[in-house]
Amino acid sequence: MILIESKRLVVRQFKPEDWRDLHEYLSQESVLEYEPGTVSNEEECKSIAKERSKDNLFLAVCLKDTNKMIGHIYFSQKEPREFLTWMIGYIFNPSYYGQGYATEACRRILKYGFEELGAHRVIALCNPENIASWRLLERLSMRREGIFMKEVFFKTTGNGQPVWQDTYQYAILKEEL
Ligand SMILES: CC(C)(COP(=O)(O)OP(=O)(O)OC[C@H]1O[C@@H](n2cnc3c(N)ncnc32)[C@H](O)[C@@H]1OP(=O)(O)O)[C@@H](O)C(=O)NCCC(=O)NCCS
To answer: Is residue 118 scored above 80 in pLDDT?
Structure first.
């Protein structure tokens, strides 16, 4: 059972009962603007929270003071495992933006990855239009390593054509933390 603390936060494994807090932000279209998929209803959030409780791929970020879950982090080792590279991703509840919670949680997870899991490199991907996301990555001292042009699509046009989007790749090495 993972339980990691920072000054204001606890980052821990998901619990099925997190579905309510999860629904508070996964039901908002603006939160998913740069993510694959669409908004989730209550039933879908119950099933997501239950599924995520089974492993540590997604971690719940909670306020220490109130136990409120305010967002989550995806932190997963990439293949081949011998390259010791992890990927980080994050989604937070807009009611808690602008207070440095995402920075604090991700910074703590990077430290956990490098110091406890033995990571050598951590990468993150984001849409260049998602300014809040790449600003967060830069606050974490991650380096912009490149831009992949029209690499992915999460949406299609009315006649089924892909809406291609570019991707920034950011990374940080253990010695850069
Ligand atoms: C990406 C995302 C997590 C960033 O959220 P955020 O609120 O900007 O990030 P933080 O919680 O770290 O807060 C940083 C802001 O709080 C301010 N802040 C206040 N107190 C702070 C503190 N103690 N420490 C750091 N920053 C602090 C910073 O100045 C910054 O404000 P600014 O953007 O006006 O400069 C959020 O926009 C999100 O969840 N988006 C939807 C999902 C998404 O797109 N995910 C990424 C897909 S690639």
So the answer is: yes
Alpha-carbon gap, residue 52 to 59, rounded angstroms: 8
d(CA 71, CA 85): 23
Q: Name all domains of the chain by residue range, CATH numbers in brackets.
A: 3-176 (3.40.630.30)
CA 50–ligand 1 middle distance (angstroms):
27
Residue nearest to atom 25 of ligand 1 (CA): 100
For atom 13 of ligand 1, the residue with the nearest CA is 100
Across the beta sheet with 143-156, the strand order is 3-5, 9-13, 58-63, 69-77, 85-92, 121-126, 162-173, 143-156
Describe the crossing of helices 42-52 and 19-26 by its angle, rounded to 10 degrees: 120
What band does 41 get if pLDDT is binned at 50, 70 and 90? very high
Q: Global pTM?
A: 0.97
